[in-house]
Design a protein that fits this description.
The structure holds two protein chains of two kinds.
Chain A lengths: L2 H8 L8 H7 L7 H15 L13 E2 L19 H10 L27 E9 L2 E4 L5 E2 L4 E8 L3 E9 L2 E10 L2 E4 L1 E2 L2 E2 L1 E3 L7 E8 L5 H13 L8 H11 L3 E9 L2
Parallel strand pairs in A: 4-13
Antiparallel strand pairs in A: 1-11, 2-3, 2-5, 5-8, 5-11, 6-7, 6-12, 9-10, 12-13
Chain B lengths: L1 H4 L3 H23 L2 H17 L10 H18 L18 H16 L2 H12 L4 H8 L3 H21 L5
The chains are: A alpha+beta, B mainly alpha.
Chain lengths: ~260, ~170
């Protein structure tokens, strides 16, 4: 390590050492780590490869990269194991053959609503530092965050979807235990951040007793929605009607977003 | 990153290749543990793959990447259990003996930094993020970010001075 790097790291007013700092910043990877990481990513990519052109992934769902958990959150949960996610991804291969889109006769429910685990979706919103229970009467604005919480009566595979005029997106999947918990990714609370240009939409939590590939869910639900008449109770109810036709338990909530 | 979002594996590997050493350096210094850093490294890149859709084109990739890594590391810090299988760890970084000793001492000093100062120091002084980017990552003000880096430098100088590695 050169003196110029050491000077820069220890003194506020030392000149930037340029490329030498980059050399210091980097540490060689342990043997095998790069290959193992790329292999893990390739496996996920292969298992989740889309078979149809689906709506482009939405850009506003993420794990919070910087914000710490809100201080006034009441929910504390067990971690979601990355190893569990990897194993869950591996299970995606057992979902069976995929029906051709456009032919409702080939849409075969896997499981039934009668046996699908009962799940409920709860949401809370965070505006600024204030976290409060979600109210469907409340209009969300850009910058607001929506957090999610599930209740399940038995072990279940849960699937969080967002349905808007942009299409159906599977935001999150997990295998959960009975009880209630936040939806998390590797331990971090999952949130939806409202962005400028967002419009009204519906969040839905579906359950199944087996692992399902996200593309299968989106495709089948999209097809089922086409065959489901409008519901008096609104789009949220229609969505769950369609999901139940596919053998999923469903709970959904529509959000209003300020234009 | 736009090509990564569209599912281009070559673009992903290019990003991986470009940022891996630096990212591992950050995680290694933040955690002070080889195996934990390797776990977090792998988990961070899996998240980059899974949530590439959350990156916006008006964002610089590097701060976003380090934000994912920071969040992953914070989460790991809240847990006591290991979450990712490990890989063999063999470092091989040939250096002149004197430089090696100097580096080791500095690494020890960095490891001794309080966590809030360490994050700001690593992100800003070592990995080149500006105060605004650090502020975003750490949920503090840019002025606070600047102050933390300065305090971290003072801490390192003092630590090295007391242990004979004075600068």
């Amino acid at each position: 390590m050169s003196d110029s790097v050491l000077d820069y790291l220890l003194q506020d007013d030392a000149p930037h050492p340029g490329a030498e700092l980059q050399a210091f910043a980097s540490i060689p990877l342990p043997v095998g780590l790069a290959q193992a990481t790329l292999a893990a990513v390739a496996q996920e990519r292969t298992l989740a490869a889309p078979t149809l052109a689906l709506p482009a992934p939405r850009t506003s769902v993420s794990t919070p990269p910087t914000a710490s958990e809100p201080a006034n959150r009441r929910w504390r949960l067990p971690a979601v194991l990355v190893a569990g996610l990897a194993a869950a991804a591996a299970l995606l291969v057992v979902v069976g053959s995929q029906p051709e889109i456009g032919d409702p006769e080939l849409l075969v429910p896997r499981g039934s609503e009668g046996t699908a685990p009962i799940v409920h979706l709860e949401m809370s919103t965070q505006r600024g530092q204030a976290l409060e229970r979600f109210s469907p009467d409340k209009t969300l604005s850009p910058g607001d965050r929506v957090f999610f919480r599930y209740k399940a009566d038995q072990p279940a595979f849960i699937h969080l979807l967002y349905i808007s005029e942009g299409g159906i997106e599977v935001l999150h999947q997990d295998r959960v235990r009975p009880g209630q918990d936040d939806l998390r990714i590797a331990g971090d609370p999952l949130f939806w951040k409202v962005e400028p240009g967002d419009s009204n939409g519906t969040f839905a939590l579906l359950s199944s007793d087996q692992e399902l590939a996200p593309d299968d869910i989106a495709r089948e639900l999209s097809q089922a929605l086409q065959d489901t008449p409008s519901a008096d109770q609104g789009e949220s109810a229609r969505l769950c009607q369609a999901a139940r036709r596919l053998g999923r338990y469903c709970d959904s909530t529509t959000i209003k977003v300020a234009p | 990153m736009v090509r990564v979002q569209s599912g281009n594996p070559q673009a992903y590997e290019m990003l991986f290749s470009r940022h891996s050493g630096s990212l591992f350096g950050y995680l290694r210094r933040r955690t002070g543990q080889d195996e934990l850093a390797a776990d977090l490294f792998q988990e961070t890149w899996l998240k980059v793959h899974r949530f590439s859709g959350s990156w916006r084109p008006d964002q610089a990739f590097k701060p976003w990447l380090y934000g994912v890594a920071l969040n992953t590391a914070r989460d790991a810090g809240r847990k006591s259990q290991r979450r990712v299988s490990t890989v063999m760890l063999e470092h091989d970084r040939p250096q002149a003996p004197q430089a090696h000793a100097q580096r080791l001492t500095l690494e020890q000093a960095i490891e001794a930094l309080p966590e809030n100062l360490k994050d700001a120091f690593l992100l800003g002084a070592v990995h080149g993020m500006d105060h605004r980017e650090i502020a975003t990552q750490l949920d503090i003000s840019p002025a606070n970010a600047r102050a933390r880096i300065s305090r971290a430098r003072a801490f390192l100088r003092d630590w090295l001075h007391k242990r004979g590695g004075a600068k």
